[in-house]
Amino acid sequence: TRARASRADADAAVEAFLNTLKYDDGGLVAAIAQDVDTGAILMQGYANRDAVAYTLKHRKATFWSRSRSQLWCKGETSGNYIAIDSVHVDCDKDSLIYLGVPTGPTCHTGAHTCYYKRVDGPDGAATKASGGRHAAEEALTTLYELEATIEARRVEAKKEGVKPSWTRRLLDDPELLCKKIREEAGELCQTWEENEGKEAAANEMADVLYHSMVMLNKQGVSMTDVLGVLRKRFGTSGVDEKASRPPKKLINVSK
Amino acid sequence: TRARASRADADAAVEAFLNTLKYDDGGLVAAIAQDVDTGAILMQGYANRDAVAYTLKHRKATFWSRSRSQLWCKGETSGNYIAIDSVHVDCDKDSLIYLGVPTGPTCHTGAHTCYYKRVDGPDGAATKASGGRHAAEEALTTLYELEATIEARRVEAKKEGVKPSWTRRLLDDPELLCKKIREEAGELCQTWEENEGKEAAANEMADVLYHSMVMLNKQGVSMTDVLGVLRKRFGTSGVDEKASRPPKKLINVSK
Ligand SMILES: [Zn+2]
Ligand SMILES: [Zn+2]
Ligand SMILES: [Zn+2]
Ligand SMILES: [Zn+2]
Ligand SMILES: [Zn+2]
Ligand SMILES: [Zn+2]
Ligand SMILES: [Zn+2]
Ligand SMILES: [Zn+2]
Ligand SMILES: [Zn+2]
Questions:
Q1: What local confidence, expressed as pLDDT, does residue A41 receive?
Q2: Which member of A10, A142, A233 has the closest CB to residue B37?
Q3: More confident residue, A254 or B7
Q4: In this complex, do A10 and B122 lie within 8 Å of one another by their Cβ atoms?
């Protein structure tokens, strides 16, 4: 009965929260599904009171389908759920973020986000660098833009008489790449050891990230994979950074 | 007159695009402003035809204010614009992403995003780790969750008889931290040198990232600063990865 009482408390808290939302004339708030690892906006729909309640209770992104006038737990038919990590509300309480992990492509077209078309070029479709699992005109944030640029360099055709890009040279010469990664890690440490200041630290971290990401590309690994590893180590699951502590290695380090 | 003709072509392309959008009964589509560096969703509003046109033309996130029934170029009065990097439309053409760089806090409350409240805890306000410039209940993606966890370890009080966390030990012993950063960079290289496979590469990259981010915290530098550096080097500005190529260093490397 203690469990039942606590369940009733939780239900009451959810009801109280649902009462604070500012629904529109159709009883809806906006709901934006965002990938917890990459930050990619996957889709945006609308949620009524029941859809928000269902999302909170079942930890799966759920919307109100305006076209079909019914509750729509995303993935119910396709199997491509968005497992909820957390839910956030905006300042005027008419918009939610469903932050979560998609179990497959979100879009019915098979794209992993519904926003795969860029529209602000002079011709309504300017081209951004793209590669890997990203569509050419997706809303890539800086880290993924860099990842896509590296991939574009990997697949670019060699041109007679034109020097290859620096990225391409690194991809073609992994020993040089390894030298650079070790060197840049050292330079990042030096910014502290020699007290070089914040700007130098940011610049050296950028060097470390870029060269390490070229190495990931070389091995066919995406930043999404890496962030998945970090989430499992540090995420809201309760596991904290202890998981990244390798005791045996630590002994080696102390030698 | 060639410039004028090309301007007319561009205007016609924008008009054609505006005709493809699926406006609701109020003549609106949803518009989500997202930080191009961090991926943080800054705010969500609505845009009519004029607001989208204004956004595309002036490269500043612009909405239709439903409460004031007027065009609202965000930052017009506060000075906190969102400079547009690119604009993307979703598959059913009723929702846009304004991907850009905020020049200040987006929210009228002074928060840098309007989504600063988490609502899915049993009491409607569960606590996530948080630190630095992030609010405690923001929708942090994995990289920023990690950054916030590191900051939380930095500020946590030492407890009598309780071993400090691994992160705290690294922060308190920067020489150990530097050793680890150099070691992890070497281990990432080894995954290629010893052909250890993708999973090992993702794990070692996670190690490199985590330890490097502890070093950033040690020096008061945020990942946002680092991504700003990378955007300036690799962004859509046309500058490509050549900017990250240090010719003098390269000579040293070849020694
Ligand atoms: Zn709102
Ligand atoms: Zn879609
Ligand atoms: Zn993508
Ligand atoms: Zn460097
Ligand atoms: Zn849509
Ligand atoms: Zn706000
Ligand atoms: Zn934040
Ligand atoms: Zn190690
Ligand atoms: Zn390692």
A1: 98
A2: A142
A3: B7
A4: yes
CA of B191 to the centre of ligand 9 (A): 10
Structure tokens given for A148: 């896509």
Neighbouring CB atoms inside 10 A of B7's CB total: 11
Ligand 8 centroid distance, CA of B106 (Å): 40
pLDDT tens, B176-220? Answer: 999 999 999 999 999 999 999 999 999 999 999 999 999 999 999
Report which of B94, B80, B92, B76 is spatially closest to residue B32, judged by C-alpha positions: B94
Domain B29-114 in this protein, CATH class: alpha beta
Chain A nearest-CA residue for B115 = A90
Query: Residue A54: what pLDDT?
Result: 96
Contact B153 A205 (CB under 8 A): no
pLDDT at B237: 39
Contact A241 B165 (CB under 8 A): yes
Q: What is the pLDDT of residue B6?
A: 78
* pLDDT tens sequence across B214-253: 999 999 999 999 999 999 998 643 334 444 444 333 333 2
Fold (CATH) for B117-234: Helix Hairpins (1.10.287)
Q: Within chain B, which residue ranges are assigned CATH 3.10.20.810?
A: 29-114
Which residue from A87, A108, A182 is facing B119, i.e. has the nearest CB?
A87
Nearest to A244 among B114, B166, B174 (CB): B166
- Measure Cα distances from B219 to A115, B105, B170, B214 in Å: 37, 23, 13, 9
CA dist A152 and A130 (Å) reads 6
pLDDT digits 0-9 by tens, B9-57? 878 888 999 999 999 999 999 999 999 999 999 999 999 999 999 999 9
Centroid of ligand 6 to alpha carbon of B82 (angstroms)? 14
DSSP string, A155-186: HSPP-TTSPPPHHHHHHH-HHHHHHHHHHHHH
Ligand 3 centre to CA of B33 (Å) is 17
Residue numbers in chain A where pLDDT is lower than 50: 236-255
- B146-162 confidence digits (pLDDT tens): 999 999 999 988 888 88
Query: CB–CB of A128 and B242 under 8 A?
Result: no
Greatest CA span in chain B, whole angstroms?
Answer: 79
Q: Which residues of B touch A89 (CB under 8 A)?
A: 115, 117, 119
B16 with A114: Cβ contact below 8 A = no
Residues of chain B with CATH 1.10.287.1080: 117-234
Tell me the CATH number for domain A2-102: 3.10.20.810
- Structural fold of domain A142-254: Helix Hairpins (1.10.287)
In this predicted structure, what is the pLDDT of residue A30? Answer: 98
